[in-house]
Amino acid sequence: MQQRHSKAFYIYSEYENCAYSEQELKAIRDNNTLKAKRIQLLSEILPKLTKSVHSEDLQLLEELKKEFAFYFEALTLIGYRRIRQLQFLDSDIEKEIFKKKLTAEKVVKDVYSVFKEGEKYTTAFMNTELEKIFKKHNICMGRRIKAKDMEYYFEIKECRTSDERGWKMVRKLIN
C-alpha cells in the first residue's frame, strides 16, 4: 500500500489496491454523469472487478450489479459495442436483450423440439407451449404471449386447422 506523508500522520487510501479509482466510482454513481459515460465506465470496471480477489472489489461488484442491474445484464448479453450502436437508448437495449434471450441456444432447441417445420398448429396450442418454454427459461415477456412470437423461430403462415385459426411453420429461421 502506498503511503502519503501528511505532517501529522500517514494516510492510506482505501482505493489503493482496488480495481477501480475513486473518480470512476463517483462518476458511475453521479446522476449528472451522462448515461453513455456511465455505461462506458461500467464496461471498463466490470472485467476488472470480476477478476479481482479483493473482498472490497467483490462487494462493490455486488452493489453495482444491484444498482445498475439493467446495464450489467446488457453488458453481459449484448456487450458495450452493441449498446453504443443502439445509441444508449434503453428501449432499444431492452429489445436487443429480449431478442438475445429468445434466440438463446437452449430456448431454440426447446422450441424446435415441440414445433416442427411444415406442421400446422392452433393458436391456443402455440401460445401455451411458448409460455411453458419461456417460463422454463425465465423469459418474461412483459405482455401476453402471442402466436406471432413464433416469428423469431419460423417463417409462419396463417391457416385453418379444423375450423380453428392456426399457423403453419413454413421453415426454420435459426439453424
What does this protein look like?
It is built from eight helices and five strands; from the N terminus they run ββαααααααβαββ. It is α+β, with helices and mostly antiparallel strands and 175 residues long. The protein folds into two domains: 4-100, no CATH class; 104-172. The strands form two sheets. Strands 3-5-4 form a three-stranded antiparallel sheet. α1 (22-29) crosses α2 (35-51). The chain starts with a strand and ends with a strand.
Percentage of residues in strands: 5-15%
Strand order of the largest sheet: 3-5-4
Distinct helical segment count: 8
What is the number of strand segments?
5
Query: Which percent range fits the helix content?
Result: 40-55%
Main beta-sheet annotation: 3 strands, antiparallel
Q: What is the CA–CA distance across the termini?
A: 54 Å
Q: In terms of structural class, how would the helical and strand content be classed?
A: alpha+beta
Shape: elongated
SSE pattern, N- to C-terminal: EEHHHHHHHEHEE
**Integer-rounded radius of gyration:** 24 Å
Average pLDDT, all residues = 83
